[in-house]
Specification:
single chain; alpha+beta; Chemotaxis protein chec; eight-stranded antiparallel β-sheet; 6 helices
């Protein structure tokens, strides 16, 4: 069971805030000069994946996800989750298209994969840099549909580190939910590297 204390949570917030900040310039370039991109400060908590899915799914309960496996000092999966409508609006905005929300194409999948890859890698690389360890990621995969279809049953009740990453582009609030699933045998190592970093600043 993943149980974070206040110091551990504060460090993770700082780490992910740095990671999100690094993506701001790139995302702004993708959106174009006519669009202003603003990130809110990230909110972090430990919850079950099933509870996050309920938050993200909205009325129709469908979600779009970008998934990447990572390995190194810790192993697991990173997910960016979007409500279906929000994900397509984001893809259309980045691509400069105006396709109907109920239509999704390979190009839109590619756009979402690029955005998700950017946000996930920025967050994980920020963590790796803070704790001076190595983390590598696999290529991103994009899935869309009902949660019970796109998520394996064995991970639905797993605990995750959840980051609420809200960003606004051209007055449209587009919410991306970053979730880190850590392999069970890596929990102890994960907490150890965080505590080792914090210990450097103890008096």
């Amino acid at each position: 069971m993943l149980d974070l204390n206040e110091d551990q949570i504060d460090l993770l917030k700082e780490i992910f805030n740095v990671g999100m900040g690094k993506t701001l310039k790139v995302l702004a370039e993708l959106a174009g000069k006519e669009h202003e991109v603003i990130f809110s400060l990230p909110k972090l908590e430990v919850i079950r994946l099933a509870d996050l899915i309920k938050r993200v799914g909205g009325d129709d309960n469908n979600v779009s996800i970008i998934q990447q496996s990572y390995n190194g000092v810790i192993n697991g999966k990173a997910l960016m989750l979007y409500p279906d409508k929000s994900s397509l609006e984001l893809a259309n905005l980045i691509m400069g298209t105006s396709l109907p929300i109920d239509e999704i194409s390979k190009l839109e999948n590619d756009a979402l994969a690029e955005i998700g890859n950017m946000l996930i890698n920025a967050s994980l690389s920020s963590f790796a840099n803070f704790v001076d360890k190595e983390i590598k990621t696999d290529l991103p995969k994009v899935k869309a549909g009902a949660p019970e279809v796109i998520f394996p049953k064995e991970i639905i009740n797993d605990q995750i580190i959840y980051l609420d990453a809200t960003f606004t582009i051209s007055n449209k609030e587009l919410v991306g939910h970053l979730a880190l699933l850590i392999d069970d045998d890596c929990y102890e190592q994960f907490l150890k590297v965080i505590d080792e970093y914090n210990a450097q600043f103890e008096i």
